[in-house]
Design brief:
single chain; 659 residues; mainly beta; Purple Acid Phosphatase, chain A, domain 2; AttH-like fold; 2 domains; eight-stranded antiparallel β-barrel; 15% helix; disordered N terminus
């Protein structure tokens, strides 16, 4: 395909005021000279072990720098999986990120992208060519595939303790979040990253590129892009043949893979190994360790190359260069077993940390002006405390409807999904106390001694004695800070908060003292459950409170709505994209759940969980599967409560247990 570029560099129209010999500018004649050459950008490894938000930031920086096009050097996804749904989901995620790039993109195959036959097939299905060439003006680009055929994971590590296996890779994923310095040391010890790399370049490829070079003898410069730097150490026979075909013509080679920048001059030609654009560090120290994009300017002489370090690019207010507002693309619901949600940057341009909604102590009290009257008027408090080690889930809910009717719900779930260990529901019951500061409803005593931070709950009924304290690990979050906002049918406003829990539970002869994590929310206004088709409500936190996640993903009238936040060390930011999946048993109960979330700051959080305790809770025409789960957040141990909600009739038609 040939694309005409005649209008690309037309002479600009320039007007300058008339002046004498003295003038406050220089070389104005250059303003009327069409620019010679062009500029292209280089994006390096996003993976393996992607660090959250870095690659997204690189996309925004490139949009600001505005090269003519960009070449991505490979390793866009983590890969090394065979499940087709997971492979597709990984590509969906990164393709959504790349969709924000405002200039043309050319892809190079990386080993993480095509690590087995299933992944290779998905690349071909989505992107077509595994190796190819193109020409831009008088510069020829050769894009090699250095995983032809795909290499086994073990080929990239050392021997013995340093062997790289799928199990070892999972351990390294966990270190990425918990101890990045230890991760770097372990990677550094794994191999000599400056020596010969296990590139694989087929005979077919070499024949193809020899033919391309023979056909394009008239080019001024040749750029060779590959993922694995095949020139390192002993080199590679295929690269020797390619160099022979290049002969004495000028060229530059680029690669990635090592996540560490290095320039070598071989035979008078630049061979440049790019640093990462989000992939994990593999070297200790500072040399070559920086996240960057590269700009290559071609002209009449040899190309000039600049590395733009992402940490050095600042926005108009002096903060980190921010994402631009992006339109919301809404999608109808997709099949349950793997759900991909839309990616959105429907936000004003933001600094590093945007000012979020600030609640006042009065927001921990009743809101009579919006919750005491009107259709579906309700005010409610919820507190959950999953305890996976004990296979327990504590679920507490108190509410007021229409200003006068109070109710509460207490259940304690165990490992058996069919029957809770304890269940007590009181509707239209007695209330006494001081607003919501200190009150009792149906025997459930609820105190909030420190507004917006703590809650203390006690409940005694027959064989059950419960005392639970919750302490928030960050300021409460409002759904109004999400792009989709707080729908008026869900609440006038609500806050969500992750926290640490401690308490004691006596259940008959069983007594448990516990410390852990939990979640609470407080909502006020209209609550029309009829709007919901399906939802996933995910709340998780690490035991130390350093990381937490709240996500509510809803299908309403054929649209997908996303609300929630990511919290890293008390720094909370709204979610802008989310994906989630659940493994359902025959009764529509989620036995495992997972997800990947990105916030406004470009930070990424992955979520994995497995069943610990739960119960199917019927509410009006809906069935709420409430599950406490052992989990991980970015590989670090965590605890989660995951609620999946369905119309009861839908579940009844599919699940034997509910027929």
């Amino acid at each position: 395909m040939t694309v005409g570029l005649d209008n690309h560099r037309q002479r600009p129209h320039v007007w300058l005021p008339p002046v004498g010999r003295a003038r406050p500018w220089s070389r104005p004649e250059l303003l009327l000279t069409p620019s010679a050459g062009f500029t292209f950008g280089l994006l390096s490894d996003r993976t393996g072990l992607a660090r959250p938000g870095v690659f997204q930031r690189a996309i925004e920086v490139l949009n600001w720098l505005r090269p003519d096009f960009v070449v991505q050097i490979g390793d866009l996804i983590e890969g090394y999986v065979t499940d087709e749904r997971e492979i597709s989901a990984q590509w969906d995620e990164v393709d959504a990120i790349l969709a924000r790039l405002d200039v043309p993109l050319f892809r190079v195959v990386g080993n993480h992208d095509v690590s087995n036959e299933a992944m290779r097939s998905e690349w071909v299905r989505r992107h077509g060519l595994l190796h190819y060439h193109f020409r831009y003006d008088d510069v020829l680009f050769l894009l090699l595939n250095t995983s032809d055929p795909p290499q086994d994971l073990t080929e990239f590590g050392g021997k013995g303790d340093h062997e790289l296996t799928p199990e070892r890779l999972a351990e390294l994923h966990a270190l990425r979040q918990s101890d990045p310095d230890a991760l770097r040391k372990q990677f550094e010890a794994m191999a000599d990253w400056d020596s010969t790399m296990p590139a694989a370049i087929s005979e077919e490829q070499v024949n193809y590129f020899e033919g391309v070079l023979a056909e394009h003898r008239d080019v001024r410069w040749t750029v060779v892009c590959m993922h694995i730097p095949a020139w390192q150490g002993d080199g590679h026979p295929a690269l020797d043949r390619l160099r022979a075909a290049l002969a004495d013509r000028p060229y530059t080679m680029f690669a990635g893979h090592i996540h560490n920048y290095r320039r070598e001059v071989i035979g008078g030609r630049d061979h440049i190994r790019l640093g990462p654009t989000g992939g994990a560090w593999v070297r200790t120290g500072d040399r070559g360790n920086f996240d960057h994009v590269s700009l290559v300017r071609t002209g009449l002489g040899e190309p000039s190359i600049a590395n733009v370090v992402l940490d050095g690019v600042l926005g108009v207010d002096g903060g980190i260069y921010p994402p631009r507002p992006r339109p919301v693309a809404r999608h109808a619901p997709t099949p349950q077993h793997y759900v991909r949600y839309r990616d959105s940057y429907e936000r004003q341009a933001m600094t590093t940390i945007r000012q979020l909604t600030q609640f006042t102590p009065d927001d921990d009290l009743l809101h009579d002006e919006v919750s005491a009257s009107g259709l579906y008027a309700r005010e409610s408090l919820l507190l959950t405390a999953p305890i996976p080690d004990e296979q327990l889930l504590i679920f507490l809910y108190a509410w007021r409807e229409g200003g006068t009717k109070w109710g509460r719900f207490v259940f304690i779930a165990g490992a058996d999904m069919n029957s809770p260990l304890f269940l007590s529901h009181a509707d239209d019951t007695d209330y006494s106390g001081e607003n919501l500061r200190d009150f009792t409803v149906g025997g459930l005593h609820w105190r909030q001694p420190k507004p917006l931070t703590t809650a203390e709950v006690e409940f005694h009924a027959g064989r059950v004695e419960l005392a639970l304290r919750f302490e928030g690990i960050h300021a409460p979050f409002s759904w109004h800070d999400n792009a989709d906002g707080c729908p008026d049918w869900a609440a006038h406003n609500r806050f969500e908060q992750s926290g640490l829990t401690r308490g004691s539970l006596t259940l008959g002869d069983r007594h448990v003292e516990f410390t852990g994590v939990g979640h609470r929310d407080h909502s006020w206004g209209s609550r029309n459950w009829n709007m919901l088709q399906h939802w996933k409500w995910i709340n998780a936190a690490t035991p130390d409170g350093a990381s937490s996640l709240h996500a509510m993903i809803m299908w309403v009238k054929g649209e997908t709505l996303i609300n929630g936040y990511l919290n890293f060390n008390g720094q909370v930011s709204p979610i802008v994209s989310a994906e989630a999946s659940a493994d359902l048993d025959d009764n529509m109960v989620h036995r495992a759940a997972r997800g990947r979330f990105v916030d406004e700051q470009g930070r990424e959080m992955t979520f994995e969980s497995r069943y610990s305790a739960g119960w199917s809770m019927p509410i009006q025409h809906l069935l709420l599967n409430e599950i406490g789960m052992a989990a991980t957040l970015n590989g670090a141990p965590a605890v989660a409560h995951v609620e999946l909600g369905w119309p009861t009739d839908y579940v009844r038609n599919l699940a034997p247990l509910h027929r």
